[in-house]
Structures are given as structure tokens and as C-alpha cells.
Amino acid sequence: MLALERIASVNDPSLHENRFAESESSLIFIPDITGFTRFVQCTDVRHSQHVISELLEILIDANHLGLDISELEGDAVLFYKYAEVPSLDLLLLQAKQMFENFHHHLKKYNTEGACHCGSKKTPVDLSLKIIIHRGRLGFTNVKQYRKPHGFDMIVAHKLLKNAVEEKEYVLVTDSFSDEVSAIDSHGFKADDFRMDKTFYKNIGEVSYSYASLSPLLGSINRQELVPCRCPMYVSR
Question: What's the predicted TM-score (pTM) here?
Fold first, then answer.
């Protein structure tokens, strides 16, 4: 993982005073690319690195809520908002935009150009799931970096492995339960969400609601494609 948020100085007294302070309510938002390991295993390393980098950039560029970035993982971006949580309505709009931009870009890899990296051309079969959790966050300082920290950060990471059988979905923990019951916008309705729960060792049972993102693919298929930016592909 790569911590991205630099701090001024670990010798600043105010940072030492507040480094473990926890907010009452903060946001953790994780879009996670699935199929990553399989794709890397069967694809030329240069090509797979470029594809994943571009897709992660697509997710970051779609961040219209101005969420902060804590870390980049190989197949995910960990966004957060300290001591501030946008409405679920806005978060679902954010999830929708990231999902549509992700698949719009993904579609170009499979419909335009040819790979010149020297390897056998491999279809890019990747998907996206998004975890949304509200909880308490604090920070720890590691050299010149400031890293979000706390039990709820652990919970959000654990939720990347869950009981959901859908391939692509948005998962919202019970911290948003009141808002889920009132959702009716951006292609999402309260009835679209199913309740489930997963037990995690040392954490216990975590309850959540989830909705499939697959219905959004229909609108993506009708969008006009723009030229692919991948240097390993050439336009026809």
C-alpha cells in the first residue's frame, strides 16, 4: 500500500496532540477492482500494469465529492472523508459515476485497437464493487505521512470479502440503514437493496445492504466510445 497524504512535520506539537483523536462520524469509501489476480496472471506484465493504472486513474478522476485518498492498493483506492459524511444519495451518485466511467473505459480495451506489447491479446475481464461505511477515524503519523486509522477502517477492509454473490455491486453498511430505506434516485431504489451479514473473526457479525450495479451496464453500452488513451493500443 502507498500512503498518499503528506503531513507538514511529525515534530509539530499539534499533530502529536491530535494524531489519535477520533471523529464521531467519518466516511470510508472503497471501489475495488475484481478479477485483478486472474488478469495479471494471464496478461503481459507491461500491459496489465498499464491497464490497471489507467482504471485506477479513472476512479480517482471520477471523485466529484472531493474525497481524500488514503492509500492505493493493487486493485483498489481507499477514499475517506474525516469528520464529514455526504448523504447516501450523493454517495450512490458517486458510485454510479465511478462504475459507468470504469466500464466505459474498460469497453474500449475490448473493442478498439490491437495490443503491441508482444504478448497474446487477452480480453480485459474486470469488474467493480464499492464498499461504503460510516464510522470513527483517527490518524497515525508515519514519518512524513498521515494515515487514517481505527477499528472502522479494519471493518471496511474486511468487507471486501463478504457473502455477496453478485459480481458487481455497491455495499452499504448498517451505519446508513435509515437512508437506505428512503433511497429513490440515480437508478437506485430502496427495494433494490438486499440485507445480508458476514461474521469476521475478532470483529463479529457485520450487517449491510447491497444492490447490484449490473443494471447500469445498459446505459454504458449505448454511450459513444471515445479514442482509447492506452499507448499499447492503436486506433483503427
Answer: 0.83
